[in-house]
Design brief:
202 residues, globular
Length: 202
């Protein structure tokens, strides 16, 4: 049986650099960014888990009719690692020994279902490798798919990181896959980021 890749969307951040707004609720096309990312992930057919901070009523609402599992992160203020640790704890009981987990940031609008599905297929072909998105010139970025044997390391990360320490310790197992444009690096953290991105969209 082919390995299952579980998609973990990290969406428990405070959106603090938006100066009062919530970047995950801003529109991409005709839907909020968080819904856009979740629907793109669901389109692959993979099981999708989304981490949210406590009390994130508006974020929950935009996901309410989607078949995603929501994991609450009451200690999200302690950093991205809390989102990753709690998300991994939810995914792990459902996983088989050959499965992978894709860590997908919620604030990156460029990813398409086709790109995510291609990364999943590449992992299934080489399930001992970390499959990581990158730029056309080879600069590593997001997302990253981690093999099952590295999950305990992901579950122990601390501070404000989403798996960078695990990537650093596993350099020899990483295969960077070039993705179109700047997709692997394009995140929208500030009002200026959003304005520049919208201007580029025409």
């Amino acid at each position: 049986m082919a390995a299952v890749v579980h998609i973990l969307i990290l969406a428990a951040g405070a959106s603090s650099r938006m100066r009062g707004g919530d970047k995950l609720l801003l529109p991409v096309g005709h839907q909020p960014l968080l819904r856009h990312v979740a629907r793109g992930a669901l389109g692959t057919g993979a099981p999708v888990t989304v981490t949210l901070p406590s009390g994130a009523t508006a974020r929950r609402k935009v996901l309410a009719d989607l078949p995603v599992r929501i994991v609450e992160v009451p200690d999200a203020a302690l950093g991205m690692s809390r989102s990753l640790v709690r998300g991994m704890a939810a995914v792990e009981p459902d996983a088989g020994p050959e499965d992978g987990v894709m860590i997908l940031p919620a604030d990156m609008p460029g990813f398409t279902t086709a790109v995510l599905a291609d990364l999943i297929a590449r992992f299934r072909a080489d399930p001992d490798l970390i499959i990581r998105g990158g730029t056309l010139d080879g600069q590593p970025g997001h997302p990253a798919i981690f093999p099952r044997d590295l999950w305990p390391e992901l579950a122990r990360v601390t501070g404000d990181e989403g798996g960078r320490s695990v990537l650093r310790q596993s350099q020899g197992r990483i295969r960077v896959i070039p993705l179109p444009d700047r997709m692997a690096l394009l995140d929208l953290d500030t009002p200026e980021d959003w304005a520049a991105w919208r201007a580029a969209q025409g």
